[in-house]
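As a warm-up, study this chain.
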Amino acid sequence: MTTTPPTIIRKPRKRLTVVLLTDERLLPAGDLADYSDKQRLLRKTEFDVKRAVETLGHQFIAVGLSNDLSTIRGAIDAHKPDIVFNLAEDFDGIGHFDQHVVSFLELLRQPYTGCNPRGLTIARDKALTKKILAYDGLKVPEFAIFPMKRVTKRPSELGFPLFVKSLTEEGSVGISGASIVYDDVRLMERVDYIHRTAGTAAVAEQFIEGREIYVGIMGNERATILPPWEFFVENRKEGAPLIATGRGKWDPEYQDQAGVMTGPAEISEKLAAKLEKLSREIYRLLSLSGYARLDFRVTPSEDVYLIEANPNPQIASDEDFASSAEYAGIQYPELIERLIRFGMNYNPERMIL
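Now compare it with the structure written out below.
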Protein backbone atom coordinates (compact mmCIF):
# COMPACT_ATOMS: atom_id res chain seq x y z
CA MET A 1 0.00 0.00 0.00
CA THR A 2 1.38 3.42 -0.93
CA THR A 3 0.80 6.73 0.73
CA THR A 4 -1.45 9.10 -1.18
CA PRO A 5 -0.39 12.75 -1.47
CA PRO A 6 -1.54 14.94 1.45
CA THR A 7 -4.64 17.01 0.91
CA ILE A 8 -4.44 20.77 0.78
CA ILE A 9 -5.96 22.42 3.84
CA ARG A 10 -8.90 24.44 2.57
CA LYS A 11 -10.05 27.52 4.38
CA PRO A 12 -13.54 26.93 5.83
CA ARG A 13 -16.53 28.50 4.11
CA LYS A 14 -17.13 30.70 7.12
CA ARG A 15 -15.57 31.32 10.50
CA LEU A 16 -17.29 29.14 13.08
CA THR A 17 -17.56 29.46 16.84
CA VAL A 18 -16.31 26.17 18.29
CA VAL A 19 -16.76 25.30 21.96
CA LEU A 20 -14.50 22.48 23.10
CA LEU A 21 -16.19 20.46 25.87
CA THR A 22 -13.84 18.37 28.00
CA ASP A 23 -13.03 17.33 31.57
CA GLU A 24 -12.25 20.47 33.54
CA ARG A 25 -8.91 18.91 34.59
CA LEU A 26 -7.82 18.61 30.95
CA LEU A 27 -8.46 22.12 29.66
CA PRO A 28 -5.74 23.12 27.15
CA ALA A 29 -4.25 25.92 29.22
CA GLY A 30 -0.67 27.21 28.95
CA ASP A 31 1.99 25.30 27.01
CA LEU A 32 1.80 21.53 26.63
CA ALA A 33 5.58 21.32 26.98
CA ASP A 34 5.29 22.53 30.58
CA TYR A 35 3.45 19.37 31.66
CA SER A 36 4.96 16.03 32.72
CA ASP A 37 5.05 13.12 30.26
CA LYS A 38 1.94 11.54 31.77
CA GLN A 39 0.09 14.86 31.91
CA ARG A 40 0.97 15.56 28.28
CA LEU A 41 -0.38 12.14 27.28
CA LEU A 42 -3.70 12.90 29.00
CA ARG A 43 -4.05 16.40 27.51
CA LYS A 44 -2.57 16.04 24.06
CA THR A 45 -5.90 15.59 22.28
CA GLU A 46 -7.28 18.83 23.71
CA PHE A 47 -4.17 20.79 22.71
CA ASP A 48 -4.10 19.23 19.23
CA VAL A 49 -7.76 19.99 18.57
CA LYS A 50 -7.30 23.56 19.82
CA ARG A 51 -4.35 24.09 17.47
CA ALA A 52 -6.24 22.58 14.51
CA VAL A 53 -9.39 24.65 15.10
CA GLU A 54 -7.32 27.85 15.29
CA THR A 55 -5.33 26.85 12.20
CA LEU A 56 -8.63 26.56 10.34
CA GLY A 57 -9.47 30.12 11.35
CA HIS A 58 -12.34 29.29 13.69
CA GLN A 59 -13.00 30.93 17.05
CA PHE A 60 -12.05 28.48 19.83
CA ILE A 61 -13.47 28.45 23.38
CA ALA A 62 -12.61 25.70 25.89
CA VAL A 63 -15.18 24.72 28.53
CA GLY A 64 -14.44 22.36 31.43
CA LEU A 65 -17.08 19.89 32.58
CA SER A 66 -17.33 18.16 35.97
CA ASN A 67 -20.74 17.43 37.51
CA ASP A 68 -22.92 20.41 36.61
CA LEU A 69 -24.98 20.50 33.42
CA SER A 70 -25.53 24.22 33.86
CA THR A 71 -21.90 24.63 32.72
CA ILE A 72 -22.96 23.40 29.28
CA ARG A 73 -26.11 25.50 29.16
CA GLY A 74 -24.21 28.58 30.30
CA ALA A 75 -21.51 28.14 27.64
CA ILE A 76 -24.10 27.71 24.89
CA ASP A 77 -26.08 30.75 26.01
CA ALA A 78 -22.94 32.87 26.33
CA HIS A 79 -21.09 31.89 23.15
CA LYS A 80 -23.87 30.59 20.85
CA PRO A 81 -21.49 28.07 19.22
CA ASP A 82 -21.99 26.70 15.75
CA ILE A 83 -20.65 23.39 17.06
CA VAL A 84 -19.62 21.82 20.37
CA PHE A 85 -16.48 19.75 19.86
CA ASN A 86 -17.26 17.00 22.34
CA LEU A 87 -14.29 15.40 24.12
CA ALA A 88 -16.21 14.62 27.33
CA GLU A 89 -15.60 10.98 28.28
CA ASP A 90 -17.61 10.96 31.51
CA PHE A 91 -19.81 13.05 33.78
CA ASP A 92 -19.10 13.32 37.51
CA GLY A 93 -16.44 10.64 37.05
CA ILE A 94 -18.86 8.04 35.65
CA GLY A 95 -17.84 6.84 32.19
CA HIS A 96 -21.19 5.60 30.91
CA PHE A 97 -22.74 8.99 31.69
CA ASP A 98 -21.04 10.34 28.54
CA GLN A 99 -24.14 9.37 26.60
CA HIS A 100 -26.26 11.64 28.82
CA VAL A 101 -24.01 14.63 28.11
CA VAL A 102 -24.71 14.16 24.41
CA SER A 103 -28.42 13.67 25.08
CA PHE A 104 -28.44 17.02 26.89
CA LEU A 105 -26.82 18.69 23.88
CA GLU A 106 -29.50 17.19 21.65
CA LEU A 107 -32.27 18.42 23.94
CA LEU A 108 -30.77 21.90 23.60
CA ARG A 109 -30.74 21.46 19.80
CA GLN A 110 -26.98 22.10 19.92
CA PRO A 111 -24.88 20.49 17.13
CA TYR A 112 -21.90 18.51 18.43
CA THR A 113 -19.10 16.32 17.11
CA GLY A 114 -18.87 12.60 17.56
CA CYS A 115 -21.33 9.83 18.22
CA ASN A 116 -25.00 10.10 19.07
CA PRO A 117 -26.33 8.85 22.46
CA ARG A 118 -27.88 5.69 21.05
CA GLY A 119 -24.60 4.57 19.48
CA LEU A 120 -22.67 5.42 22.66
CA THR A 121 -25.09 3.38 24.76
CA ILE A 122 -24.90 0.31 22.52
CA ALA A 123 -21.14 0.34 22.03
CA ARG A 124 -20.43 0.90 25.74
CA ASP A 125 -21.93 -2.52 26.57
CA LYS A 126 -19.52 -5.04 25.02
CA ALA A 127 -22.00 -7.90 25.41
CA LEU A 128 -24.90 -5.99 23.85
CA THR A 129 -22.68 -5.11 20.89
CA LYS A 130 -21.87 -8.78 20.31
CA LYS A 131 -25.51 -9.84 20.64
CA ILE A 132 -26.63 -7.34 18.00
CA LEU A 133 -23.93 -8.34 15.55
CA ALA A 134 -24.38 -12.08 16.15
CA TYR A 135 -28.10 -11.70 15.41
CA ASP A 136 -27.16 -10.48 11.93
CA GLY A 137 -24.67 -13.31 11.42
CA LEU A 138 -21.42 -11.41 11.98
CA LYS A 139 -18.50 -13.16 13.67
CA VAL A 140 -17.94 -12.23 17.32
CA PRO A 141 -16.16 -14.19 20.07
CA GLU A 142 -18.29 -16.48 22.24
CA PHE A 143 -18.69 -14.89 25.67
CA ALA A 144 -20.31 -14.91 29.10
CA ILE A 145 -21.20 -12.06 31.46
CA PHE A 146 -20.30 -12.19 35.16
CA PRO A 147 -22.33 -9.64 37.17
CA MET A 148 -21.07 -8.31 40.47
CA LYS A 149 -22.14 -10.04 43.70
CA ARG A 150 -22.93 -13.27 41.87
CA VAL A 151 -21.21 -16.65 41.91
CA THR A 152 -18.76 -16.97 39.02
CA LYS A 153 -19.78 -20.05 37.05
CA ARG A 154 -18.55 -20.63 33.53
CA PRO A 155 -21.08 -21.98 31.01
CA SER A 156 -19.94 -25.46 30.01
CA GLU A 157 -19.99 -24.60 26.31
CA LEU A 158 -17.55 -21.70 26.77
CA GLY A 159 -14.04 -23.12 26.43
CA PHE A 160 -10.60 -21.80 27.29
CA PRO A 161 -8.56 -19.69 26.76
CA LEU A 162 -10.74 -16.76 27.75
CA PHE A 163 -10.05 -13.04 27.79
CA VAL A 164 -11.52 -11.28 30.84
CA LYS A 165 -12.26 -7.55 30.93
CA SER A 166 -14.74 -4.97 32.17
CA LEU A 167 -18.13 -5.11 30.51
CA THR A 168 -18.36 -1.32 30.14
CA GLU A 169 -15.04 0.40 30.91
CA GLU A 170 -12.87 1.62 28.02
CA GLY A 171 -9.23 2.57 27.46
CA SER A 172 -7.85 -0.93 28.29
CA VAL A 173 -8.85 -0.50 31.95
CA GLY A 174 -7.94 -3.62 33.91
CA ILE A 175 -6.25 -5.35 30.97
CA SER A 176 -2.86 -7.03 31.44
CA GLY A 177 -1.16 -10.32 30.63
CA ALA A 178 -3.21 -11.91 33.42
CA SER A 179 -6.42 -11.09 31.52
CA ILE A 180 -6.04 -14.31 29.52
CA VAL A 181 -7.06 -17.30 31.64
CA TYR A 182 -6.78 -21.02 30.99
CA ASP A 183 -8.76 -22.61 33.83
CA ASP A 184 -11.69 -21.95 36.15
CA VAL A 185 -9.55 -20.94 39.12
CA ARG A 186 -7.85 -18.15 37.16
CA LEU A 187 -11.18 -17.17 35.66
CA MET A 188 -12.70 -16.67 39.12
CA GLU A 189 -9.66 -14.68 40.24
CA ARG A 190 -9.72 -12.40 37.22
CA VAL A 191 -13.46 -11.81 37.35
CA ASP A 192 -13.08 -10.87 41.02
CA TYR A 193 -10.23 -8.51 40.08
CA ILE A 194 -12.42 -6.70 37.52
CA HIS A 195 -15.26 -6.44 40.03
CA ARG A 196 -12.96 -4.94 42.67
CA THR A 197 -10.87 -2.58 40.54
CA ALA A 198 -13.23 -1.49 37.77
CA GLY A 199 -16.41 -1.67 39.82
CA THR A 200 -18.33 -3.20 36.91
CA ALA A 201 -19.56 -6.54 35.66
CA ALA A 202 -16.95 -8.62 33.83
CA VAL A 203 -17.15 -10.26 30.45
CA ALA A 204 -15.09 -13.33 29.53
CA GLU A 205 -14.82 -13.90 25.81
CA GLN A 206 -13.15 -16.46 23.61
CA PHE A 207 -9.55 -15.38 23.01
CA ILE A 208 -8.99 -15.12 19.26
CA GLU A 209 -5.41 -15.81 18.21
CA GLY A 210 -4.31 -13.63 15.35
CA ARG A 211 -3.58 -10.08 14.23
CA GLU A 212 -5.18 -7.05 15.87
CA ILE A 213 -6.36 -4.58 13.25
CA TYR A 214 -8.16 -1.29 13.78
CA VAL A 215 -10.40 0.38 11.20
CA GLY A 216 -11.29 4.06 11.52
CA ILE A 217 -14.61 5.17 10.11
CA MET A 218 -16.29 8.58 10.03
CA GLY A 219 -19.52 10.08 8.78
CA ASN A 220 -23.23 9.70 9.36
CA GLU A 221 -25.48 7.97 6.82
CA ARG A 222 -22.54 7.96 4.38
CA ALA A 223 -19.29 6.81 5.95
CA THR A 224 -15.64 7.12 4.97
CA ILE A 225 -13.40 4.13 5.78
CA LEU A 226 -9.79 4.86 6.72
CA PRO A 227 -6.87 2.52 5.94
CA PRO A 228 -6.64 -0.49 8.31
CA TRP A 229 -4.14 0.07 11.12
CA GLU A 230 -2.35 -2.78 12.92
CA PHE A 231 -1.20 -3.17 16.53
CA PHE A 232 2.28 -4.64 17.13
CA VAL A 233 4.43 -5.52 20.14
CA GLU A 234 7.89 -5.87 18.62
CA ASN A 235 9.63 -7.22 21.75
CA ARG A 236 6.94 -9.75 22.60
CA LYS A 237 8.31 -13.05 23.90
CA GLU A 238 7.96 -16.00 21.55
CA GLY A 239 4.60 -17.67 22.11
CA ALA A 240 3.25 -14.80 24.23
CA PRO A 241 -0.29 -13.72 23.27
CA LEU A 242 -0.77 -10.41 21.50
CA ILE A 243 -2.93 -8.08 23.60
CA ALA A 244 -3.24 -4.31 24.04
CA THR A 245 -2.76 -3.81 27.79
CA GLY A 246 -3.39 -0.77 29.95
CA ARG A 247 0.36 -0.21 30.30
CA GLY A 248 0.78 -0.53 26.56
CA LYS A 249 -1.76 2.25 26.06
CA TRP A 250 -0.88 4.69 28.86
CA ASP A 251 2.75 4.09 29.92
CA PRO A 252 5.26 5.69 27.49
CA GLU A 253 8.25 4.05 29.20
CA TYR A 254 6.69 0.60 28.91
CA GLN A 255 5.74 1.29 25.29
CA ASP A 256 9.40 1.94 24.47
CA GLN A 257 10.61 -1.13 26.36
CA ALA A 258 8.08 -3.51 24.84
CA GLY A 259 8.16 -1.99 21.35
CA VAL A 260 4.45 -1.20 21.35
CA MET A 261 3.48 0.46 18.09
CA THR A 262 0.83 0.68 15.41
CA GLY A 263 1.08 1.22 11.68
CA PRO A 264 -0.45 0.49 8.29
CA ALA A 265 -1.70 -3.10 8.04
CA GLU A 266 -0.09 -5.02 5.20
CA ILE A 267 -3.04 -7.09 4.03
CA SER A 268 -4.42 -8.58 0.85
CA GLU A 269 -6.93 -6.73 -1.30
CA LYS A 270 -9.47 -9.42 -0.43
CA LEU A 271 -9.05 -8.87 3.31
CA ALA A 272 -9.10 -5.08 2.86
CA ALA A 273 -12.41 -5.36 0.99
CA LYS A 274 -13.82 -7.64 3.70
CA LEU A 275 -12.83 -5.22 6.47
CA GLU A 276 -14.36 -2.29 4.61
CA LYS A 277 -17.65 -4.11 4.04
CA LEU A 278 -17.82 -5.30 7.64
CA SER A 279 -16.98 -1.85 9.01
CA ARG A 280 -19.77 -0.19 7.08
CA GLU A 281 -22.26 -2.84 8.21
CA ILE A 282 -21.19 -2.67 11.87
CA TYR A 283 -21.30 1.13 11.88
CA ARG A 284 -24.91 0.96 10.68
CA LEU A 285 -26.04 -1.92 12.92
CA LEU A 286 -24.69 -0.23 16.06
CA SER A 287 -26.26 3.15 15.14
CA LEU A 288 -22.88 4.89 15.19
CA SER A 289 -22.29 8.39 13.83
CA GLY A 290 -19.57 11.03 13.76
CA TYR A 291 -16.49 8.83 13.99
CA ALA A 292 -15.42 5.53 15.51
CA ARG A 293 -12.65 2.95 15.59
CA LEU A 294 -13.55 -0.72 15.15
CA ASP A 295 -11.17 -3.26 16.72
CA PHE A 296 -10.89 -6.56 14.87
CA ARG A 297 -9.04 -9.83 15.36
CA VAL A 298 -8.02 -11.56 12.14
CA THR A 299 -7.12 -15.24 12.26
CA PRO A 300 -4.43 -16.83 10.03
CA SER A 301 -7.26 -18.07 7.77
CA GLU A 302 -8.54 -14.45 7.58
CA ASP A 303 -11.70 -14.96 9.57
CA VAL A 304 -12.57 -11.54 11.01
CA TYR A 305 -14.05 -11.04 14.48
CA LEU A 306 -15.15 -7.72 15.93
CA ILE A 307 -13.68 -7.34 19.42
CA GLU A 308 -14.95 -3.87 20.29
CA ALA A 309 -16.53 -0.82 18.72
CA ASN A 310 -15.12 2.47 19.99
CA PRO A 311 -17.18 5.59 19.17
CA ASN A 312 -15.32 8.86 19.80
CA PRO A 313 -11.86 7.24 19.93
CA GLN A 314 -8.72 9.18 20.80
CA ILE A 315 -8.00 11.72 18.04
CA ALA A 316 -4.73 13.30 19.08
CA SER A 317 -2.60 14.01 16.01
CA ASP A 318 -0.35 11.00 16.65
CA GLU A 319 -3.06 8.51 17.67
CA ASP A 320 -4.20 5.65 15.43
CA PHE A 321 -7.28 7.40 14.03
CA ALA A 322 -5.46 10.55 12.93
CA SER A 323 -2.41 8.60 11.72
CA SER A 324 -4.62 6.42 9.55
CA ALA A 325 -6.35 9.53 8.16
CA GLU A 326 -2.99 11.12 7.38
CA TYR A 327 -1.92 7.92 5.60
CA ALA A 328 -5.03 8.36 3.45
CA GLY A 329 -3.97 11.93 2.62
CA ILE A 330 -6.10 13.78 5.19
CA GLN A 331 -3.98 16.24 7.16
CA TYR A 332 -4.91 16.76 10.78
CA PRO A 333 -6.64 20.17 10.49
CA GLU A 334 -8.66 18.81 7.56
CA LEU A 335 -9.65 15.80 9.67
CA ILE A 336 -10.89 18.07 12.46
CA GLU A 337 -12.79 20.17 9.91
CA ARG A 338 -14.50 17.03 8.59
CA LEU A 339 -15.53 15.94 12.08
CA ILE A 340 -16.98 19.41 12.66
CA ARG A 341 -18.97 19.24 9.40
CA PHE A 342 -20.28 15.76 10.22
CA GLY A 343 -21.51 17.12 13.55
CA MET A 344 -23.17 20.14 11.97
CA ASN A 345 -24.89 17.95 9.36
CA TYR A 346 -26.17 15.33 11.79
CA ASN A 347 -29.91 15.49 12.47
CA PRO A 348 -30.79 13.92 15.86
CA GLU A 349 -34.46 13.88 14.95
CA ARG A 350 -33.70 11.28 12.27
CA MET A 351 -32.52 8.06 13.90
CA ILE A 352 -29.67 6.26 12.10
CA LEU A 353 -30.79 2.71 11.26
